[in-house]
Amino acid sequence: MERYKSQLLNLLGGEDTQHNENILMILNKCIEKLPDRSRDIIKERYYGSQTVADLADSNSLQPNALSQLLFRIKSKLKICVKETSVE
Asked: What is this structure's pTM?
């Protein structure tokens, strides 16, 4: 998850430590809003550090399909974080 958090913070331009903490708190809230399957996949991939191949296999998906799914989930998270941080 650290890798994703780092990428997200770079995309949002967060350099201030307090700002980073707020963004990470928002990210966690956005992750919790995801449907169960999406949330589980994100947590297994980034918290559990599973490879795409292993995660695809455990979810009965082809690695390319899982990569596309991860891309869509991360896009939703980026939107959620940006919308939430504006409020």
From this structure: 0.77
